[in-house]
Fold this sequence. Notes:
It is a single chain. Helix 1 runs parallel beside helix 10 (199-214), helix 2 (26-34) runs parallel beside helix 16 (333-340) and helix 7 (132-140) packs across helix 11. This protein has helices at residues 2-15, 26-34, 37-40, 60-71, 92-97, 108-117, 132-140, 153-162, 174-180, 199-214, 234-243, 273-276, 278-282, 297-301, 325-328, 333-340; strands spanning 19-23, 45-49, 76-79, 102-105, 122-125, 144-147, 169-173, 192-195, 220-222, 244-251, 255-264. Strands 2-1-7-8-9 form a five-stranded parallel sheet. It is an alpha/beta fold. It binds iron/sulfur cluster. Iron/sulfur cluster binds next to helix 14 and helix 15. Residues 295-297, 300, 307, 310, 312-313, 317, 323-324, 326-327, 334 line the site of iron/sulfur cluster (SF4).
Amino acid sequence: MENIIKKINEIAGKIRRDIFLMEVCGTHTQAVAKYGLKELMPKNINLTTGPGCPVCVTSQEDIDAIVNLALADIPVATYGDMMRVPGYYGSLDQAREKGAKVFAVYSIEEALNIQKKYSDLVFFGLGFETTTPMTAYAIKKGLTVYSIHKSFLPAMQALLKIGELKIDGYICPGHIATIIGSKPFKSMKVPQVIAGFEAEDILLAIFMLLKQILNNQAVVENEYLRSVREQGNQKAMQEIFDVFDLGDGNWRGFGIIPKSGFKIKKLYQKFDAKIKYKKILDQIDFSFSQKPTNCICHEIIRGLKTPKQCPLFKKICAPENPIGPCMVSIEGACNVFARYVK
Ligand code: SF4
């Protein structure tokens, strides 16, 4: 590790300007904080955090929708972290305290098992291309899903397009690249390195990015060769597109990003909770979902601010009492900062 840090210092010295590298994966966010990688960087190399946590980027409207379905006596299952994300109408955990049938699951198989008892169960399906194939499989088996699954690349593209933040290079998400392959990243004309999740992986990716920047290159390189292929996992991608089409995705911090949301195809629409429970959903007052709060998750997700700049950080908002989604998920920037950053 010392050797690679020495090389990063050497190359940073040659670049002689401030460089901003963004990681866009919750697991990278954790690794950077856990191993103190920011502190190991030369002065002109800045590591920023982007929208890599699927719980964090879930829109307030979607939280409010699923909580209202639960309160309307429809059984709901979802992955553990999502239970605690507060919306205007409370969280799924709070709905359960009020008597709603809400189940935290660790796998899609668990949701399928619960459905055997509660045939009208709705699975609140979230995540990027990594978890979407499992949900597609469950829909084929007859599970009703409220899909907030998202395709990740459009968010990286949106950040570049918005241009409110300087991004000299992306440390690209290894898990997602394992599924979609390295090829789709070529659509972005910015230095990129797909990285694994050990400290050495991330440091090597930083070195590779700096080398590109020094040589005025903007290509996609793959540091995570042990897992990522150019074509990705075609079987998993096939499973996704058997069941889903790409449509508008509603992201916290961004709003609607076209072609970023996995929508259930017409062929499977009888398992689409947004259609099945349209009457209930149409009655929800979403005007409250946009009410401004002191939580700055929306800016943290876009890399504009750090958790320490939030006035609530570790005062009112903490992992045991989360005010926003970035403090709920163990991959959320606020949660990670609260645990690892002094
Ligand atoms: Fe939101 Fe809490 Fe993070 Fe502040 S510290 S941005 S309130 S999650």
